[in-house]
Amino acid sequence: MSLYYFHTNNTLGNGDPEGTEFKSIADAKCEAVRFAAQLLCDSAGDFWDTADFEMTVTDGKGLILFTMRFIGTEAPAIRTLHRA
After folding, report:
1. Residues contacting 74, CB < 8 A, separation 6+
2. Count helices and strands in the chain by DSSP H and E runs
3. Edge-to-edge strand order for the sheet containing 2-8?
4. Domain ranges in the chain?
5. CA 79/CA 81 separation, integer angstroms
6. Torsion of CA 75, 81, 82, 84, to 10 degrees
7. Beta bridge partners of 4
8. For residue 53, what pLDDT is reported?
9. What tens-digit pLDDT sequence spans the chain (84 residues)?
10. How far is residue 38's CA from residue 15's CA, in Å, rounded to a whole number?
């Protein structure tokens, strides 16, 4: 089992000082997708305001293992509805 640390680039999530143990990097990737989805869902309004979200997963030595990036862009029609 290895420790994996999940970090985000904005206020949707916090740094991960404790890490989480997984049997494999595949398991860590699966959890990263779940965790990112939950953060985005819980903060849907904030995500669209910042327009991007990035999660970087590192090992115990700080080596970046993988990064996920999400970009949200509202269509002009949606922006018009918000102003009305």
Report:
1. 48
2. 3, 4
3. 20-22, 2-8, 52-58, 64-71
4. 2-83
5. 5
6. 150
7. 20
8. 82
9. 899 999 988 655 567 788 999 999 999 999 999 998 998 888 776 666 666 788 999 998 999 999 999 887 777 776 666 555
10. 16
pLDDT score of 66: 97
Q: Which residues have C-beta within 8 Å of that of residue 83, sequence separation ≥ 6?
A: none
Residue recorded with tokens 């890490």? 19
**Locus of tokens 């819980």:** 42
Distance CA 84, CA 68 (A): 34
Place of tokens 């993988």: 66
Residue 37: alpha-carbon gap to chain centroid: 7
Query: Global pTM?
Result: 0.77
